[in-house]
Amino acid sequence: MYVAVKGGEKAIDAAHAWLAEERRGDVSVTELSVAQIREQMTLAVNRVMAEGSLYDPDLAALAIKQARGDLIEAIFLIRAYRTTLPRFGATRPVETADMDCIRRVSATFKDAPGGQVLGPTFDYTHRLLDFKLAADGTVPEAPTRETEPAPVPHITEFLNKEGLIQSEPQSDTAPRDLTREPLELPADRALRLQSLTRGDEGFILGMAYSTQRGYARNHAFVGELRIGTCAVEMDIPEQSFAVEIGEVELTECETVNQFKGSKVEPPQFTRGYGLVFGQTERKAISMALVDRALRWKELGEDNAGAPAQDEEFVLYHADNIQATGFLEHIKLPHYVDFQSELELVRKMRADAMGALQEAAE
Amino acid sequence: MQEYNFAYLDEQTKRMIRRAILKGLAVPGYQVPFASREMPMPYGWGTGGVQVSAAVLMPEDVMKVIDQGADDTTNAVSIRKFFERTAGVDTTERTSDADVIQTRHRIPEEALREDQILVYQVPIPEPLRFLEPRETETRKMHALEEYGLMHVKLYEDIARNGAIATAYAYPVRVEGRYVMDPSPIPKFDNPKLEMAAIQLFGAGREQRIYALPPYCNVVSLDFEDYPFEASKADHACDLCGCETSYLDEVIVDDAGGRMFVCSDTDFCRGRRAAGHIGVQGTPFEEDAA
């Protein structure tokens, strides 16, 4: 005897209790602390902050712990928390030229004022599993050297002085805010960059890679990649000066791209730009490549019909929280719709079988 | 848990959403862009409906949430709990007791009244989306009232299959102007779109709100020689015996045995309480299940 399905509420509570147990795992193994995640899973924390659009390493670490290490789920937790926060105002734009760099490399010049600084990078490591790390996590102290604080100017500024690289239009208008206004197209570059910086790392990487392989190919050099901390300053009403309210770690990438010139622009180099929270190098470089590909219209280039040139395609599909939600919603019950399809298919089948029967007779 | 504002959203956000709702009611069927917020449930799981409900709920309101017509489906339970927790409103399973009803994929069988609001969760608000993937294009098509593509699609369905092969999310034209997606309700529900209650449609991920004011003219697209037909399974409900309600098909054994039951669980419960018994039904007892 069939009884109507009941008990959804109990099932949900039980499922969530089970989930909490699974998250903790074997209780004979020491529990992870939020501080451990923040300090030792830093790059995961950085990705969650970047795509969650909220700079708070402790909250990002908590989200990673709560999400069992599922970074998109952690980003989701951060986004949902972020929207509830009141807004006190906007800071001044950060001055990345004044960045206190831990890493700064250029692929276009062998050396430049400020020097090449490798910093804490995976580059040139041999990707060999370090079995010693499984038993003993102590690390020998890294060598240090005294340096004089010196300015680290942007590499592209040197090209700019010669007029070899396209200069960007200056503007003091406040950019539109993707999280407070519906996305409407065409989007200006500021809005595109907002979307890219919080977009899914994998998606942006794939888009960038596609431009390298010839879908709207535009050969990019990493003019400069810098990672470091920037002061965040804010104008406080009733104060005549800006107040430093903290600092954020940022990764900035400027690419220098070949450009043969077009009807509207003489031959020169052009730029792609990436700026992302935390040490997030892969994302920043990818962002710069996609940014450059999306600029075809303003530079008078041909639309090759490549996905990375298609603003609507890129901006509508870059957000992993939108994407994962809609993708996973197909797990929800759809039996009303399925029932209506069942009726339709049965009816069309009956009609078609009838017609076949008639044809055979 | 930290304190949230009534119905979760802050008042400025609700104001922004209410403005979009009012614009939607003033231009029936037009998709109003709104700055959808990130909600604590995933996009695609009712965030648009939840934001619209949050914007129209008053503390004294009674709320009902259904998914597939049923109050007890998991996502309906989850959304109902969300409003119980964040708005502290009373909830009900009885259609007639509710002031605000949030729904996914169904319109309740019982006719709604002028003092009720029906809020739909909408996955893809654009009826032309699967004919033209670009939003920049479809907005133009609506502006120019250029709906030929839709008619060609319906015509091709008939040419190929002998029938319009759309069983749910069947497109409608509102007040002779905008072609609108009624959300993925079965086309059986389409005639009910002309009703006394206010109908609000929220699409969170796609950042659109649209609306049907009471008694608005809503016509399902069709052709003179292939008129629209609201179809359902050719059965009666096996629990309450109703012959006019929309039915779910339930597989009951390994041999493909099946039975049909009302998709609207409150409607079915009401009929059984009133003494109607279907072929496989048992006399009604409160909380029998």
Count of discrete structural domains of chain B: 2
Strands of chain B, total number:
12
How does the helix and strand content of chain A classify structurally? alpha+beta
Beta-strand residue percentage of chain A: 5-15%
- What CATH architecture label of the largest domain in chain B applies? 3-Layer(aba) Sandwich
Instruction: Give the rounded overall mean pLDDT of chain A.
Output: 91
Give the percentage of residues in beta strands of chain B: 15-25%
Order of helices and strands of chain A: HHHHHEHHHHEEEHHHH
Q: Tell me the radius of gyration of chain A.
A: 26 Å
Work out the helix count of chain A.
13
The CATH fourth-level homologous superfamily of the largest domain in chain B: Bacterial phosphonate metabolism protein PhnH
Give the termini separation of chain A: 44 Å
* Level-1 CATH class name of the largest domain in chain B: Alpha Beta
Envelope shape of chain A: globular
What is the global morphology of chain B?
A: globular
What does this structure look like?
The complex is a heterodimer of chains A (361) and B (289). Among the domains of chain A are: 14-82, no CATH class; 96-120 and 151-167 and 180-319, no CATH class. The mean pLDDT of chain A is 91. Chain A contains 13 helices and 4 strands. Chain A has a 4-stranded antiparallel sheet with strand order 1-2-3-4. Chain A has helices at residues 8-24, 34-40, 42-52, 57-66, 71-82, 131-135, 155-161, 189-197, 201-212, 281-294, 311-317, 320-328, 335-360, and strands at residues 100-105, 220-235, 242-257, 270-277. By secondary structure, chain A is α+β, with helices and mostly antiparallel strands. Chain B has 289 residues and is of the alpha/beta class. Chain B has 2 domains: 11-220, Bacterial phosphonate metabolism protein PhnH (Rossmann fold, 3-Layer(aba) Sandwich); 232-281, no CATH class. Helices cover 25% and strands 17% of the residues of chain B. Chain B has helices at residues 11-26, 47-56, 74-86, 135-143, 148-161, 265-273, and strands at 32-33, 62-67, 90-91, 100-104, 117-121, 172-174, 178-180, 198-203, 208-212, 218-220, 247-251, 258-262. In chain B, the strands form 3 sheets. Chain B has a 7-stranded mixed sheet. The longest helix of chain B has 16 residues, at 11-26. Chain B is globular and about 55 Å long. The model of chain B has no long low-confidence stretch (mean pLDDT 93). The interface between A and B is large, with 51 and 70 residues.
